[in-house]
Write a structure and sequence with these properties.
The complex is a heterodimer of chains A (452) and B (67). Chain A is built from 17 helices and eleven strands. With 452 residues, chain A is an alpha/beta fold. In chain A, a hairpin with a 5-residue loop joins strand 7 (271-274) and strand 8. Chain B has a two-stranded antiparallel sheet. Chain B has a two-stranded antiparallel ribbon with strand order 2-3. Chain B has 67 residues and is α+β, with helices and mostly antiparallel strands. The chains are: A alpha/beta (452), B alpha+beta (67). The A-B interface holds A 185-187, 336-340, 342-343, 373, 377-379 and B 8-14, 29-33, 35.
């Protein structure tokens, strides 16, 4: 399969296929720099050729769900009516930085991927949906102007700004926003790839996925598979929050040991969060045996998500950290579904009680009952993801639960911690990144899209 | 053709008519929102299920075919 692929897509002799990192240049690349590094955009010579190449590459979505990119593209290409393609760079997860990092350093790789995906599914409209950030929006406007000056893309790209909300990048919320509505999830019948923006079949791909598409189109499936594992090929962008408080975005071959990615051997940690705030905690001893790979993490009851990893240092209280995140997630509910609207604030409240030394033991029964009541009952996966995080915290920090019920907390706040004198007890400043008060505590924005 | 009930959780406003009409398939949670069983609706309950669907003030209850 890959041999055939290589004959369809011979690597351009003048351009050397990049070793890792493939996606992230050391400095931002303008169009000339981008073409100098990767060569010009290469369109497929026959319809479906690129989709078949992506299928051979085994590329999966890098936005969190990990769905095979070619399957989605085929479904959209086969759908009724002219398709819409949207590059998703909303990245509402506060602990994730990889998408804005990629857009900042390699905007043309993402824009190439968007053009290729639009061509492959025969789209009539192409949008880039990104975080509402002035500098980023200016950079993208500039990148689009460069492309237009250089002869223009086959399809004009609209930039649509995403509100700074956790759920803004959820596929149906994105489809609603790009279609002129609010960026909140909708009840998906039928699915977005069948009927999304304005009822058209809509291909939503994460911006990193599109960047991989741009390179697969140039260098082929066999090249893509040179890193990663046979089952999960390629590389992926990771936002790693190390136990020493350093956060890094890097490109990692899928299958690399978590120990390496997070430096677990060098810096003590008690637990690892994988898959971001809809993900799960894993005890550090178990995490140290696991690779950065979807199947292995799933088996461990966790997920890869959009590549957010965090190693919790030993002096932190995992219950206090989780309680903060659960309160944030509850505030980020779009408030549309009764079980989520009612259940998330209550579970977050009960978990906050649990995060306190001397917690009322009745909060455990409440958590058990309420988490059972919200899971699976929303229009989107927000309640399910929140419950997954909650349950993993109860399991992984069960020792700390016992301590809290007995009136103690084993964490020690660092000296100089805001709101505490340092010493025993949970730290007042979060280890896991959360947005400053503001968007996370207000109701969802329902403003109309303002840009173009 | 086997059918089952499904609720559109966004449209649902927690009126609770469905649980009154069809307690065999719908119960209310402690916030008065329906917990709908995904089990097939047996023939003897089908007319009640249809009524629950049409009587829902929010049009949030669906009777869908099981494939």
């Amino acid at each position: 399969m890959t041999d055939t692929a290589a004959t369809i897509w011979p690597p351009d002799a003048a351009i050397t296929a990049p070793d890792l990192p493939r996606l992230l240049p050391p400095v931002p690349l303008d169009l000339a720099g981008h073409i100098g590094v990767h060569g010009p955009l290469r369109y497929a010579s026959a319809p479906r050729e690129l989709i078949e190449e992506i299928r051979a590459a085994g590329l999966t979505g890098r936005g969190g769900a990990g769905f095979p990119a070619a399957v989605k593209m085929t479904a959209v290409a086969d759908g009724r009516g002219r398709a819409v393609v949207v590059g998703n760079g909303a990245e509402g997860e506060p602990a994730s930085h990889k998408d804005r990092h990629l857009l900042w350093l390699a905007p043309h790789l993402v824009l190439d991927g968007l053009q290729l995906a639009a061509e492959a599914v025969g789209a009539r409209r192409a949008c880039l949906y990104v975080h509402r950030h002035d500098q980023l929006l200016r950079l993208l406007d500039h990148a689009l102007a460069e492309r237009s000056a250089a002869g223009g893309d086959r399809i004009t790209v609209e930039i649509v700004a995403a509100p700074p909300r956790f759920l803004a990048g959820e596929e149906s919320a994105l489809a609603s926003r790009v279609g002129g509505g609010p960026a909140v999830p909708t009840f998906k019948r039928p699915r977005v790839f069948e009927r999304g923006v304005g009822g058209a079949p809509t291909l939503v791909q994460n911006v990193e996925t599109l960047a991989h598409v741009a390179l697969i189109a140039r260098f082929g499936a066999a090249w893509f598979r040179e890193v990663g594992t046979a089952a999960e090929p390629g590389s992926m962008l990771v936002t790693a929050h190390r136990a020493d408080g350093v956060s890094l975005v890097s490109e990692i071959p899928v299958g690399a040991p978590l120990t390496e990615v997070l430096g677990l051997g060098r810096r003590p940690a008690q637990a690892v969060l994988t898959g971001g705030y809809h993900g799960a905690w894993i005890p550090v001893a178990q995490a140290a045996t696991l690779p950065l790979a979807s199947a292995a993490l799933r088996q461990a009851g966790a997920s890869l998500g959009a590549g957010v990893l965090a190693a919790l240092p030993p002096d932190r209280c995992g219950l206090a950290e989780t309680a903060r995140v659960l309160r944030y997630l509850a505030a980020e509910s779009a408030g549309q579904c009764g079980p989520c609207l009612n259940g998330l604030p209550r579970t977050a409240g009960a978990f906050t009680e649990l995060s306190r030394p001397g917690a009322d033991p009745r909060c455990l029964a409440d958590l058990e009952r309420w988490s059972g009541l919200v899971a699976g009952r929303g229009a989107c996966h927000h309640p399910d993801g929140s419950v997954r995080l909650l349950r993993s915290a109860l399991a992984v920090f069960s020792g700390e639960v016992g301590q809290h019920l007995a009136g103690r907390c084993t964490a020690r706040a660092p000296a100089g911690d805001r709101g505490s004198a340092g010493g025993p007890g949970p730290a007042a400043t979060p280890f896991l990144p959360l947005p400053a008060a503001g968007p996370g505590t207000s109701r969802p924005t329902r403003s109309r899209p303002g840009r173009r | 053709m086997a059918t089952r009930l499904r609720v559109n959780p966004i449209a649902c406003a927690g009126h609770g008519l469905c649980a009154e009409l069809l307690p065999e398939r719908v119960t209310l949670d402690e916030w008065h929102y329906p917990v709908v069983s995904g089990e097939p609706v047996p023939p003897e309950l089908e007319s009640l299920a249809r009524r629950a669907v049409t009587d829902c003030p929010a049009l949030a209850l669906l009777l869908e075919r099981i494939r």
